[in-house]
C-alpha cells in the first residue's frame, strides 16, 4: 500500500514541479563590480579609443574548467518509492554534503587558481544548500560553494569576479532529519578583475538554458525537467578577439546530450571569432567508448580540436571519477569528461590536469572534487 503523503508536502511537490517545468528562461545574473583599479575589466570598449596594444606577441589566454562537486548523488532520492524512503534519502544526501566539506574543498580550488592564474574559469556544480523548518521554506544558507571560493580567493589576494551565474536545477524537500533541505545548482563564469583592458577586455556576456533538457520521472516527485545551459563571453587581448563558452552537458541521456551539443554549436559557438569551449561536457572523449561520445563527435565535427589530445595524444587524461560515494576512498578515473576544445586562428601551448594527485588532497584527506580539472593556455594568433 502506498504511503500517504501529507497535504502540505503535496503542495510543495506541486510547486516544485511547476517551477521546474517553467524554468525555460535563463536565470542569468551578470555582475559588474569594478576592479581594484576602478575599471571593470569586461567593460564594453569605447570605439574611438580602446587602449589596445597592436604588438604581435603576448596574446596568451589561460582558461580553466572545474566541476566543484555538489557533494552527493540524487539518484536514491529520485528513485525512492515511499515518502518515508524519500525523506530518509534526502537526509542521507545532506549528511553526504556535510561530509564532503564544501568550504575546505573550495580552499583547495583557490590554491589551484593561485597556482595556475587562469584568466577565465568555468565552474560547474557551484551549489547552494539551505535548510528551514520541516515543510516550510528552506531559506537559511548553510553552504554556498561559489561564495566559499570567492572568500578563499580574496584571502589569497586574488581578484576574480563572477561575470555570469546561471541557475540550473533547484528544489527543496522534507528530510528525516526533521528539517527542510533546499538545493540550487549553478554554472558560473569567473574572470580575473585585476587586468588592464589591453590585457583582457570582456563584453557581450550571454547565458541561456538549452531548449532540450532531460525529463526525469520519480515515483514521489512525478516528472521533473533538469535544466542545463551555457555561458559565453566575447573577449579581446591586444586587439585579438575571441569567444569563451562554458557548459555542463546532460550526462544521463545520449539523445538529450546530442541535442544540447548541436544547440551549443549552432548557438554561442556560431561565430567567426576563435572559440574556446571549457566545461564538464559529460561526453566521453575520443579515447573512450565511441558509443558514449555522440556529443563529443558533434562538437568536434563542427571544427573543434581537443586541447588535451593535441598535446598528449598517447595519454588518456581521464578526469572522472576520483572517488565514489565515500569521498575519502579514492577510485581510478575511467572517463575524460572535462574538456577544453578550440576552433579558429589560435594554438594550444599547454594543457594540464589539476586536482588529481595526492598533493591536491585537503588537510582532512578530501579530493577538491570528484572530477579533475583542466587548464589550457591558448595563443591567439595575430
Report on this model:
By secondary structure, the protein is α+β, with helices and mostly antiparallel strands. The model is unreliable at 1-56 (pLDDT under 50). α6 (254-266) packs parallel to α7. The chain has 8 helices and 16 strands. It is globular. Helices cover 24% and strands 31% of the residues. The protein has a single domain, classed as Endonuclease/exonuclease/phosphatase (Deoxyribonuclease I, Chain A, 4-Layer Sandwich). The longest helix has 18 residues, at 83-100. A hairpin with a 2-residue loop joins β10 and β11 (240-247). Strands 1, 2, 3, 4, 5, 6, 15 and 16 form an 8-stranded mixed β-sheet that branches.
Amino acid at each position: 500500500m502506498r504511503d500517504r503523503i501529507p497535504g502540505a508536502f503535496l503542495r510543495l511537490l506541486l510547486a516544485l514541479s511547476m517551477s521546474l517545468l517553467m524554468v525555460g528562461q535563463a536565470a542569468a545574473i551578470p555582475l559588474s563590480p569594478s576592479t581594484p583599479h576602478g575599471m571593470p575589466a569586461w567593460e564594453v570598449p569605447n570605439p574611438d579609443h580602446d587602449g589596445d596594444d597592436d604588438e604581435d606577441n603576448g596574446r596568451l589566454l589561460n582558461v580553466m574548467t572545474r566541476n566543484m562537486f555538489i557533494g552527493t548523488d540524487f539518484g536514491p532520492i529520485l528513485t525512492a518509492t515511499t515518502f518515508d524512503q524519500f525523506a530518509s534519502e534526502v537526509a542521507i544526501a545532506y549528511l553526504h554534503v556535510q561530509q564532503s566539506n564544501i568550504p575546505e574543498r573550495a580552499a583547495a580550488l583557490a590554491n589551484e587558481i593561485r597556482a595556475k592564474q587562469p584568466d577565465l574559469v568555468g565552474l560547474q556544480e557551484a551549489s547552494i544548500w539551505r535548510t528551514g523548518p520541516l515543510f516550510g521554506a528552506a531559506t537559511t544558507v548553510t553552504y554556498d560553494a561559489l561564495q566559499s571560493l570567492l572568500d578563499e580567493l580574496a584571502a589569497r589576494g586574488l581578484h576574480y569576479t563572477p561575470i555570469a551565474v546561471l541557475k540550473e536545477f533547484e528544489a527543496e524537500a522534507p528530510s528525516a532529519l526533521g528539517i527542510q533541505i533546499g538545493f540550487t545548482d549553478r554554472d558560473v563564469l569567473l574572470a580575473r578583475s585585476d587586468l588592464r583592458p589591453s590585457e583582457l577586455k570582456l563584453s557581450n556576456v550571454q547565458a541561456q538554458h538549452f531548449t532540450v533538457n532531460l525529463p526525469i520521472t520519480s515515483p514521489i516527485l512525478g516528472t521533473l525537467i533538469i535544466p542545463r545551459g551555457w555561458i559565453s563571453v566575447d573577449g579581446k587581448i591586444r586587439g585579438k578577439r575571441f569567444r569563451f563558452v562554458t557548459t555542463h552537458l546532460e550526462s544521463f541521456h545520449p539523445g538529450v546530450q546530442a541535442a544540447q551539443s548541436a544547440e551549443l554549436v549552432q548557438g554561442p559557438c556560431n561565430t567567426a571569432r576563435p572559440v574556446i569551449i571549457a566545461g564538464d561536457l559529460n561526453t566521453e572523449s575520443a579515447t573512450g567508448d565511441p558509443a558514449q561520445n555522440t556529443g563529443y563527435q558533434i562538437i568536434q565535427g563542427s571544427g573543434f580540436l581537443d586541447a588535451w589530445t593535441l598535446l598528449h595524444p598517447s595519454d588518456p587524461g581521464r578526469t572522472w571519477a576520483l572517488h565514489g560515494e565515500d569521498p575519502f576512498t579514492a577510485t581510478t578515473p575511467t572517463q575524460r569528461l572535462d574538456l577544453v576544445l578550440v576552433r579558429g586562428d589560435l594554438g594550444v601551448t599547454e594543457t594540464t590536469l589539476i586536482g588529481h594527485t595526492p598533493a591536491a588532497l585537503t588537510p582532512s584527506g578530501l579530493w577538491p572534487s570528484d572530477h579533475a580539472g583542466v587548464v589550457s593556455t591558448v595563443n591567439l594568433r595575430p
